[in-house]
Amino acid sequence: MGLLLDACGDAFEAFVPSPCLACGSGGGPLCARCRAARAEELVPRPFEASERASALPLGPSGEPWPVWAGGEYTGLRSELMLAFKGRGVTAVSDVLASHLGAAVAALDLGERDVLVRVPPSWRSCLTRGYDPVERLLAGAGGAGERGLVRRRAAWRPAARGGQKGLGARQRGERLARAFRPGPRAGAVLPRCGRVVVVDDVLTTGATLGAVMKVLLAAGAPAVAGAVALAARPTGRAGEGTLGEPLGKDG
Ligand SMILES: [Zn+2]
Hints:
This protein has 250 residues and is of the alpha/beta class. The protein has one domain: Rossmann fold. The chain is built from nine helices and seven strands, in the order ααββααβααβαβαβαβ. The strands form two sheets. A five-stranded mixed sheet has the order 1-2-7-6-3. Strands 4-5 form a two-stranded antiparallel ribbon. The protein is globular and about 50 Å long. The N terminus and C terminus are likely disordered. The chain binds zinc ion. Zinc ion binds next to helix 2.
């Protein structure tokens, strides 16, 4: 099924003429000239982003569990992410995967640390033809541990408008019911070091936080996060609302 979905994604892309995302010329999704001229913007600049994400659970120190991002969700990087997630432009995934790879590298994983990707929704896979997070993780040379956390099949984001317009806390409450421990959680999690939750974009941290909470409750001794890009808070001060990346459905 995964292979079939991937093949559909590639076929889709091959038949859609794609202008360069930066200059609009025909050599898209990112022409050779722009790739060279704007190379500086495409270099990962990892930073610890947990203080921006108000919905993350707190660790034993009273601080949020650490989440590393490979770069800012701004400028050309955010355009690439929007094209990748929203319009099926998978040819830019190498740039984004390098950002995720830098975030994972910054966590300096030990032998007992494992990566777990945020489980995709079926709707997301079927709409896009691929799972963006899995693509990025594979591109970064990593593999997510399977069977540790699942998305509840019956759960739906919202009848209308998805998560848009909800505050961080409301999103957190809604998302708390979206995930459950997977079949291998009880046996594997207690023996892990850090369980690193992987996602594409960090906004409020509601999704990442919900998965972290499930893992902690199921026996993970410690959690962390790694995302390709992290958004800057754009809402009113203290409210924790953030600009919503296109296609962020959970
Ligand atoms: Zn260009």
